[in-house]
Amino acid sequence: MASVNPFNVSDSDEEAERRPNETVDTERSPSEGAPGPPPGNSFSPSADGEPPTLLLSGNRTSPSGEGIQFPAAATSVMAGGTETRVSVDVIAAQLLRDQYILTALELHTELLEAGRELPRLRDYFSNPGNFERQSGTPPAKDQVIGPGGPLNRAGSISTLDSLDFARYSDDGNRESDERVAESEVPSQERKNFKTSPEIQEPIRPLEKRALNFLVNEYLLKNDYKLSSITFSDENDDQDFELWDDVGLNIPKPPDLLQLYRSCGTPLSSPRSTVDVSVAVDFADLPGNCTKQTEVVQELEYQISLLNTEKQSFAEQIKKLQRFVFMHHQHNITQLCRNSNKFSFLWGFFPSLFLFYYFLPNTLSPVFQQTLLSFCRMCPDSRLGAEVSRIADSEESVMLMLGRCLPHIVPNVLLAKREELIPLILCTACLHPEPKERDQLLHILFNLIKRPDDEQRQMILTGCVAFARHVGPTRVEAELLPQCWEQINHKYPERRLLVAESCGALAPYLPKEIRSSLVLSMLQQMLTEDKADMVREAVVKSLGIIMGYIDDPDKYSQGFELMLLSLADPSERVVSAVHQVFIPAFAAWTTELGMLHTALIPSLLARIEKLLKQGDHGLDEHKLHMFLSGLQSLIPPLFAVVLQNAPFTSRAILNGDIPAIEVTRFPRPASPLQDVATIIGSREMLSALLVLYDHQLEHEGTTGWDSLLWVVNQLLPLLIEIVGRINVTSSICVHEFSRFFWRFCRTFGKIFTNTKVKPQFQEILRLSEENVDASAGNGILTKATVPIYATGVLTCYNQEEDRKLLVGFLEDVMTTLSLSHAPLDSLKASFVELGANPVYHELLLTVLWYGVVHTSALVRCTAARMFELLVKGVNETLVAQRVVPALITLSSDPEISVRISTIPAFGTIMETVTQKELLERVKMQLASFLEDPQYQDQHSLHMEIIRTFGRVGPNAEPRFRDDFVLPHLHKLALANNHQVVETKRIDIAMQLFEAYSALSCCFISEEVMINHFLPGLRCLRVDMEQLSPEHEVILSSMIKECEIKVENRGMADAQGSMSIASTLVGEDAKTKFLSKMGQLTTSGAMLANVFQRKK
């Protein structure tokens, strides 16, 4: 056989194509030997077979030191010439096959420099996948899996160069691989670079993330918790709970301590071995050795008999095979001779047909295995084993999924991971191993780092399906621990998933766990979690728990949870309480019979206690909290009244049942507060309502215990509580008005007219006896009046209802006016009703009644009520109804009535924009100021100055400059000549407050020089004699105004500026503010400075 020169290389690929049989494609390097067949694969070569290997040289050695020789077939092919040229492509294929990657790279580089590019090498080195490690089972020690098999290369201890950086991170973003492929660097340079102490390779991003993970793990294990927290905060872009977040496709390495202990361990050196044989002296064996020898001999005899029987069976099998072969041969011969299609071929190739239709199994097993080894089978790996082992039963499918899913999930994009949920859940349901099920459920809850709403809903749906399938025991044992582990997770989306899971799984948990462990988990999250959306989900889950709880001892805990949730600072949490928790808790207390015996009385007791403590200042937030909770209990209470009525058993769904009016009930805050939902259906509710109205109207409440409790205990207590409220607290009045409105609308018109109104009317007897004029603490001066007017009388808006409301307000206005009582209750009624435009006409009707009343006291009250109504009424009504009424009152014979109209005129100047109206009002105010009959009216001047100070900052600038400031100047000048000291000091103090409020307005230079500064100087003259502390402030204001006027002369283009902005000197500011703080006069005028012009 001629020798082959490996350096005699062909320059053309065409020459290699003409000799295709010179190469044999093999799968493994010679140093590996023949691979053992995977289990169950009949096509894998046997372990004894040696796959044929093509060698380029007879004396070339593999990296393992074994010589590589040509097989006989290859030798015979090459023996045709004395010297055979081998193509470059053959050499490249052999180098890649044997994993001589660096040699192949050098060959590729030299070919490129020579201007010749080999496609095989170009495709190989341009494909990054050839240098990626397979995910899954970690490689063996000192091996890195290459594209064609294991790459025998020792991993570096001091660097992480063997790690695979080319993968997707857990965030779904591709981490940039910044390292240079080691295969592109000569091995000697690489060795020198890594071993040189002076050269330190810079840390790579994924190396840094891996080391960060190990350092954080070390800090946690050794109780450096504060350091760990600080370290986590400084690396907030990394999740230290999941190794997969690092971004490496390798299992988690050992901890730092283990790495430290093993870093100095030297590699074990090869040692010489000696074969030693050991002999045993039978004389030294125990006495029972003889018996064992006899047993062995008996077994050997049975083996020989079985071998004989086996040979007999083998001969019979061969005879049967020959018989079958002859039978098939006869049939095929007849078929071919009788068929026209095959008769021609049968005459020439009868043996070919017989060989094609029936191939006798005469090949040896070794030859078969060797022949089949040329198939390109998957190398021996985890994935290869899974592929070759096809599942043949449901259990084996579950086992396979349990093994594969942990390797699949990390490599799926985050945006598509919810597609794996059905597969994970199905496997977790049916997998026989508890440990594997736990791992799969852990993967489910950690599938997405921060799941959004849709992803959480998908996971929850899967959890519910899992719970339905496996039952309460496994839900408790397998799902709840996953929730408990993530109760304090750093991401709120994960804690939100836990909170929602507790509610979704409530129906499928054992009742003992529901009322103990799950309830405690949710209570902990409600009190400790900082995220509003998590607490909102907790409250909803608590409501679901309350719907399934059956332990009466948990009532007190549920009540405290309700109060705790109502006190939450987040509006979305409080909204969830009213929508879910309170209806569910009320339904449970209804089953216990504690709704009207414990729950509602407890809230009323807390409201009473709060009002008793309100002498030093009422906590309006707590009152709103308790009252809103009580308001959410109205629908369940009405349902209890219907379900425990004497007529409940007579309710029949058959027949013509009238539909429920859309406006019959107030709009519920949630479907759980819908009375129809509580009762069971709208048909049943409609039937019960018909019987309910009939019972109230014709038969009464005898024997109706639940309704009697509402009428005889609840209503009197509520009315008593209302009488204790401070009428000046608009928030409290509004909250109780809303409560009574919903209460009356829910219980119906007949109930309101026959049960609610009579109790209020009995207390609100409209007579002077009900008004204590001396102390002002009669029932008509309390909040009962506005709450009855706005909460009860406005429930229904028919004509008779409106007449009743108008009559009540007229009577209250008349009674309070004639009794000289405070008007706070009437004002509160007008404010609350005036917020709704529906009642503007009605209120104007009431006021016109006061305008034309015979008593001047009533007319004065009506004039003052116009001031409250003007702000909310549209300008058309102001022009048509308000201004005519005020002008009528301004010409009243009584001076007190005329003075009472001034605040209303001022409010019109502040809010109305129609020029005609403003001129009419201006003329009326001018008549008050310029008419000689009012020159000595001290009360009128005080009211005008107070009104100017209140509305001046928000009025039209032209009205302020042309009317307000000039008349204030006149009033200040006239006050200098006032001889009555008490009147002089009253006017001076009122002017000081007015000027203080107007000083923050933009005033033109002309008005400032002609009116504002002269008015201040006149006022300073009064203050020098009456109040020196005010005189200091006025002097400072005058000085700064004069300076500003001088500056304006040099910069007219800057326009008018605020007097307040002229106080630029720090000394002047400090002096001004300190003096203002020493004053004891009211600051009401200053408060209006910051109101915007409407």
Summarize the structure.
With 1094 residues, the chain is mainly alpha-helical.
Task: Provide an overview of this structure.
InterPro entries: ARM-like, ARM-type_fold, HEAT_type_2, LisH, RELCH. The chain is elongated. The strands form three sheets. Strands 1-2 form a two-stranded parallel ribbon. 61% of the residues lie in helices and 1% in strands. Helix 15 crosses helix 16, helix 18 (453-470) runs antiparallel to helix 19 (472-485) and helix 23 packs antiparallel against helix 24. It is mainly α and 1094 residues long. The protein is built from 48 helices and six strands. Among the domains are: 205-258, no CATH class; 970-1049, no CATH class. A hairpin with a 4-residue loop joins strand 3 (143-145) and strand 4.
